[in-house]
Fold these 4 entries.
Entry 1:
Amino acid sequence: MEGAILGLEGVYRTFKKGRTLIPVLQDIDLNVMPQECICLVGESGCGKTTTGKILSGLLKPSRGRVFFEGKDTTSLRGAAYNAYRRAVQIIHQDPYASLNPAHTIYSTLSFPLFRHKLVKHYNEARERVAALLEMVDLTPVADVIDKYPHQLSGGQRQRVGIARALTTNPRVIVADEAVSMVDVSIRIGLLNMMGRLQAELGAALVFITHDLALAKYFAWEGRIAVMYLGRIVEIGRTQEVIANPQHPYTRVLLSAIPEADPERTRHKQHIQLRSEDIPRLTELPPGCAFHPRCPWFVPGMCDSEVPTLERGADMDTRVACHPLTRGEPLTLYPA
Ligand SMILES: Nc1ncnc2c1ncn2[C@@H]1O[C@H](COP(=O)(O)OP(=O)(O)O)[C@@H](O)[C@H]1O
Ligand SMILES: [Mg+2]
């Protein structure tokens, strides 16, 4: 897409497990525009983390291309490749596992500064680390900077994880379930801080979550991409996707979000799936992978060809669903 800072084109990724190849991502096209917030949502195992790692260069696609500022990243060498890796930073899901327990906060945060030659000497590094800790509200800095991860709370550790992602002045931050492991009571504080930092730094944010309610809250001004079993099934502006969900899977996800008013939750349309079983990646059903569960399944159409993402009628949202992209109304199966 014109002007995208980061993009995936036709990305596939497989993992080997014994003798079988597991198709974890299939035909992913995704563009990240400068300063936008784009949310990847979908249930556990649908490939969100793998997508985030490929975006940030931690994993290579098995097939397909990753573009940074319009250039294929496999063609980048030396300084240009390092600039890409610096520009895209990831905040990992688990603040316990992603911080080295043997390193102090200063040492964790100064390491990338020295590695990328962003500071020259100790005093400069101390100053920069202190400024980073202030940015993520870990103050007074003197109480935190020389501590070890185990001496901090879970919420404080995740703030260190966020500060580490900011060390290289990234243009894209991939936040992978960044608040899933912390207590609900401190989630909103972390989310608000991430939103504020994103705006201040002018970075784009790829916000990964299994929780559509969180996506709705966080990416209200941005876009949402809904994933199901390794593919994007719907992508569009958050407000449009929430107000007018297209793909049957998106409708199911939305119908499962409780409303603040219990009375409204009780009266919410509950969508009855044809099956609760999620197919294995190694035994994907033919055609649309959602068809065995889809209440609006059309035999002969949905179970033959894999649907590609196309624009739905009268809207910008793109959706991978045969009946919808052919302009046919959804009718319950069996009709
Ligand atoms: N390194 C790996 N080796 C083998 N399988 C993997 C590896 N990483 C992820 N997977 C598998 O890929 C699928 C998608 O994983 P992931 O991208 O972590 O999904 P999500 O973040 O949406 O939960 C899962 O079935 C997972 O078991
Ligand atoms: Mg994940």
Note: The first strand starts at residue 6 and ends at 17.
Entry 2:
Amino acid sequence: MRTVIIYHSDSGHTGAVAEYLARQTGADLVRVRSTFPYTTLSRSVTGVRRALSGTPDPIEQREIDVAGYDCVVVGSPVWAGHPTPVINGAVDRLRNCKGKAGVAFVTCCLVSGGAAGILTQRLENRGLQVKGSLVVHGSQVGDYTHLNRLVAIINRPWYGDIRVY
Ligand SMILES: Cc1cc2nc3c(=O)[nH]c(=O)nc-3n(C[C@H](O)[C@H](O)[C@H](O)COP(=O)(O)O)c2cc1C
């Protein structure tokens, strides 16, 4: 199964999780950076406002074509209980994702709010079929027992549109 991990990370937590997952699963990594001119202060004001309203940031990539992959993993920091505008920009620019497996994860300090569910819904709106999600709190970034839950979700067999009840 070919897997790609698409993630946004400013201070390194989401990136550390993404790199661990890539080592464990052999997935490719795509780091997404915003071209919105944030300062440290405006990230906490404008960035939070954009996260709350679900606004996508402009990002470096014009598009993120996942045609060559079976599974698309998307990771975001939590901003005010939401996925970041940066990852919203990445989700908007996904190409050829319809019908593929998806996995969502978010990292946060303490309170993730509805961020994992919101990210899951956005991925499903793009046509991915999300087979699981995980919240990683700050203290769990190096907790491999916890992160291996995400590895197990990524490695879970996937039969496309066929649902077994
Ligand atoms: C603007 C902003 C808003 C944040 N809001 C939350 C929040 O609502 N809940 C929380 O637990 N952590 C919050 N955090 C902390 C980050 O989610 C957490 O540190 C995350 O792991 C950072 O990921 P990164 O190191 O990959 O950038 C916020 C951080 C920033 C910069």
Note: The two ends are 23 Å apart (CA to CA).
Entry 3:
Amino acid sequence: MRKIIKAKCLACDKLNLSKDEIGINKKLLGEEVKEFYCLECLATYLEVNVEDITDKIEEFKAEGCKLFD
Ligand SMILES: [Zn+2]
């Protein structure tokens, strides 16, 4: 049974973050993080573009990263 994660963005309170969003938080901020940013706020936090983040997600998926199953 797949666990349903109801996470919300730490910064803007956007609800129901996607698995991709949670996965990339863990990849970039550490697997132990308990609080997550949505893509927009993560990009702001890291001072990059949202496209940079989505590119990273695609890269990790292509590598077969388990966080994006
Ligand atoms: Zn946000």
Note: The CA atoms of residues 21 and 38 lie 6 Å apart.
Entry 4:
Amino acid sequence: MELTERVTQAADAAVREKGYATAIDVMLGIGWLQPSHVLEWRTRRLPFLESGIQANLSKVSEAMRLFAAWAANAGLQPSIAEYSARTANRERLRFSKSGEAAIEAAWQTHWVSPNLTDAKCARVAARAQKPPDLVVVAARHSDWRCHRCSGTGQLLVMEPPGPACLNCAGLGHLEELPAGDALVTRRARSASKLSAVIVRWSRTRKRYERIGVLVEPAALAKARGRTESNA
Ligand SMILES: [Zn+2]
């Protein structure tokens, strides 16, 4: 299939699914980027997103150009989103090796469908500005050491120098809520000022899977209480 067609299909699928498309959606859709690379980038294990892309840079810029042309032609509205790291410091993320402003802006542009209702538009915009979830990883081996205190544990936070324990990452006071009860999870997360998503690497599926969340104990108690009193 021609690159134009692959880019168009990927962008179109993203717009149909969520009302807007980004260059990341396109790279994922055409298979040049894997979700695991996006997660590594968002947790700052990749210095810039393009280092995770399985295609040469001239191909990438061609795909970016085709995507922007398609989006403008389809009447989508450009809107720039902030991308910050899913780490405690939430550093601003970089997309390209050069860090050139025009390239960074192209990656940050969300092309929004003109057919969205105003309410949906506002939700899409709010989501783009909302800080991303922190990510905590279930340790695969018990022999890892925290780069700050040399401690260990079942959960770790990936930081650029290496893994950190929950205490050192400032998440030690949070309580674990395994996935399974969507209602309690949603209530606990919305009541918790600080929360994190727990993921585990699946060797068979070759991707990270969400296995639960970390939330403040008070928020968890409140969410469970509310759910029981409704039952
Ligand atoms: Zn530590």
Note: Helices lie at 3-18, 23-29, 35-42, 57-73, 101-108, 118-129, 182-191, 217-230.
